[in-house]
From TrEMBL:
Biased composition (Gly residues): 397-425, 433-443
Region (Disordered): 380-462
Compartments reported by the entry: Cytoplasm
SMART domains per UniProt: DEXDc, HELICc
Organism: Rugamonas rivuli
Protein name: ATP-dependent RNA helicase RhlE
Name of the gene: rhlE
Length: 462
């Protein structure tokens, strides 16, 4: 199957072909015709499936062609926003808008992205100039709405991307305010990795007789990824990581730590070993995060150290190595982390440095993925088998910190929480459900415990 056989215009097919993609992914095969039809869509797909092009391509087609499919060539002067794409994080917003630009380069459409943490004035200027497709995070979009610097009254297509994450991050009220500012007659597309009751409720209120499609998670069997556990003493993790990077000559290594402090410390330690590393997490400025990410993507930075929330939605083609420096305390996060390697059929490697404190977490992960991961002791780093476990620090801040950062702050662009906290911060008993999980992993919708998200979305002010 080709992109042109899906009914996309020549201008769009040409742009896709230039990116090197010849065959639509399963989500694209299903979503593109459904969106071209003009109806609403409920799509179950996570990052890595090709979902971005799945909605970007058909909306570009719809906005750039007339009812007969002919290209619209005239450029009207007044350009109202015709498509609005909401995403949970700045990084994802930037990536989505980049896709819109790439795939829309042979159309007359223009786009812009707005998110918090950066100056609002350049965004106001952009919006004034006229924009066909706006990609935004909910908090900053509301700022613009309050300042009346954005006009959403002509929106024809609304896309909620990673809707489950937006809900997990407490954006439901913001989303509802945005919905209230849109014209009632429009096309709505909702993309979500999971279908919780909250998502179903949102979909019920938003979508009109939607086409429903669901594709398997890209790494549902986690087969393309070689996974390994390196048992190690807690104070030997850093020398072990430096050893692995140097001995194997690893480049482009994405390393996950549980805490922001842990990320900073590791960057410093690797620096002393002569290994170039930068951290991205909620306490870093947006410009520092953008710089780190782009250097890493361009292969100029050897190691990127990230916390789970900062890494959300980051899409790096063919990332060869993911290292769990600390295991995540929410098992679903493990799948989400390692899903960043081995994309689109490329082989990837995910190694986890596991000390005695993390054995229970490892058990929970193995239970979730229904696999026992191979253990490989690295000579020179044999763990002390008599070591006793200690409680681990789960993250840097207090309750709700995982989602912290507020509207213009860091974190994952979540609004500041006042009533949250939920179950995310406490160590769990082995096998206990992961409350507050926002990993977006392989949860099967309803069965996933959502206590923190539910807690947060109720009764909280802005
Ligand atoms: P997404 O799920 O939108 O985050 O996309 C995941 C990755 O798949 C991105 O790096 C895309 O560039 C890539 N991609 C999108 N469409 C295709 C395709 N048809 N064939 C191969 N890779 C693709």
């Amino acid at each position: 199957m080709s992109f042109s056989s899906l009914g996309l215009s020549d201008a769009i097919v040409r742009a896709v072909t230039e990116t090197g993609y010849t065959t639509p992914t399963p989500i694209q095969q299903q979503a593109i015709p459904a969106v071209l039809n003009g109806g609403d869509l409920l799509a179950g797909a996570q990052t890595g499936t090709g979902k971005t092009a799945g909605f970007t391509l058909p909306i570009l087609h719809r906005l750039s062609t007339d009812a007969n499919g002919a290209a619209i060539t005239s450029n009207t002067t007044a350009r109202p926003i015709r498509a609005l794409i909401l995403t949970p994080t700045r990084e994802l917003a930037a990536q989505v808008e980049e896709s819109v630009r790439t795939y829309g380069k042979y159309t007359k459409l223009n786009s812009t992205v707005i998110f918090g943490g950066v100056g609002i004035n350049p965004q106001i200027k952009q919006l004034k100039h006229g924009v066909d497709i706006l990609v935004a995070t909910p908090g900053r979009l509301l700022d613009h709405m309050e300042q009346r610097t954005v006009n959403l009254s002509k929106v024809e297509i609304l896309i909620l991307d990673e809707a489950d994450r937006m809900l997990d991050m407490g954006f439901i009220r913001d989303i509802k305010k945005v919905l209230a500012a849109l014209p009632p007659k429009r096309q709505n597309l909702l993309f979500s990795a999971t279908f919780s009751d909250e998502i179903k409720a949102l979909a019920d209120g938003l979508l009109n007789k939607p086409a429903t499609i669901e594709v398997a998670r890209r790494n549902s069997t986690v087969e393309v990824i070689a996974q390994k556990i390196h048992p190690v003493d807690r104070d030997k993790k850093h020398p072990m990581l430096a050893h692995l990077i140097k001995a194997n000559d690893w480049h482009q290594v994405l390393v996950f730590t549980r805490t922001k402090h842990g990320a900073n410390k590791l960057v410093e330690q690797l620096g002393h070993d002569g290994i170039g590393a930068m951290a991205i997490h909620g306490n870093k400025s947006q410009s520092a995060r953008t710089k780190a990410l782009s250097e890493f993507k361009d292969n100029k930075l050897q190691v990127l150290v990230a916390t789970d929330i900062a890494a959300r939605g980051i899409d790096i083609d063919q990332l060869p190595h993911v290292v769990n420096y600390d295991l995540p305390n929410i098992p679903e996060d493990y799948v989400h982390r390692i899903g960043r390697t081995g994309r689109a059929g490329a082989t990837g490697e995910a190694v986890s440095l596991v000390c005695v404190d993390e054995h229970e977490m490892l058990k929970d992960i193995e239970k979730l993925i229904k696999q026992t991961l191979p253990r490989e002791v690295i000579p020179g780093f044999e763990p002390d088998l008599n070591a006793r476990p200690q409680p681990v620090q789960l993250r840097s801040g207090g309750p709700g910190h995982r989602n912290g950062g507020g509207r213009n702050g860091g974190g994952g662009q979540a609004r500041a929480k006042t009533g949250g906290g939920g179950g995310g911060n406490k160590p769990r008993a082995p096998g206990a459900p992961a409350g507050g999980g926002n990993g977006g992993g392989p949860r099967s919708g309803n069965s996933a415990p959502r206590s923190a998200a539910q807690h947060r979305s109720g009764g909280r002010g802005r």
